[in-house]
Backbone:
């Protein structure tokens, strides 16, 4: 009984001593690297040992794992860089969104008229008024116009603001434009109508637009609108 107790004490002391040696070995190995032994015995059983060589009769594989370098005394790892913060632009400084204008509707295609199907333009008259004002007209026999006369009293004085009024009926003198000058006459009449539309009174705008459209058709759809001049 006493021998068994003594044997147990010797085994405990040997175990403690082995632990101290193992810790010292690991402390040294931690500075140089960790040694791992892979042991395979005769029966094929695999054992992995840390720092302790394999027993005799076993197949041994030795591997050294590098230890991480120890930072110097007083070393402080750098702090991670702060994440970038989004820049907030005040609403008052933001540019308004650009809204593209709506697409313009496609223009209606004008009916093409072949040169062989074109007709000569209508007759045109150049008329002259009593005060030598000239204009073009479709009508060669215009209605007479009433020209207001100045009235005088019995004493020969001009009466302004009186209820008395008189006018003289005057006729415009018109003559037909020659065939060779018809296209030039219609184009001049179209220019005059466009000027009246641009600078005329707003209440007559609808009538002026209709006149410009009518004269444009005459110029474009008759022989005046040929691609190449002809007889």
Residues:
């Amino acid at each position: 009984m006493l021998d068994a107790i003594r044997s147990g004490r010797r085994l405990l002391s040997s175990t403690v001593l082995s632990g101290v040696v193992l810790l010292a070995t690991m402390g040294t190995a931690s500075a140089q690297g960790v040694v791992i032994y892979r042991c395979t015995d005769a029966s094929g059983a695999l054992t992995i040992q840390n720092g302790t060589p394999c027993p005799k009769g076993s197949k041994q594989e030795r591997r050294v794992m590098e230890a991480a370098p120890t930072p110097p005394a007083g070393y402080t790892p750098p702090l991670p860089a702060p994440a970038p913060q989004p820049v907030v632009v005040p609403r008052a400084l933001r540019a308004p969104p650009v809204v593209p204008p709506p697409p313009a509707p496609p223009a209606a295609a004008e009916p093409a008229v072949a040169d062989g199907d074109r007709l000569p333009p209508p007759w045109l008259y150049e008329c002259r008024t009593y005060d030598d004002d000239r204009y073009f007209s479709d009508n060669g026999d215009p209605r007479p116009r009433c020209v207001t006369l100045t009235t005088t009293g019995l004493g020969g004085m001009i009466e302004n603001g009186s209820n008395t009024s008189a006018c003289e009926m005057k006729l415009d003198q018109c003559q037909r434009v020659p065939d060779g000058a018809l296209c030039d006459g219609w184009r001049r009449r179209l220019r005059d109508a466009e000027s009246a539309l641009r600078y005329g009174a707003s209440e007559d705008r609808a009538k002026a637009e209709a006149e410009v459209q009518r004269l444009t058709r005459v110029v474009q759809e008759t022989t005046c609108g040929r691609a190449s001049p002809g007889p």
In short: Residues 2-65 form one domain. The first strand starts at residue 34 and ends at 40.
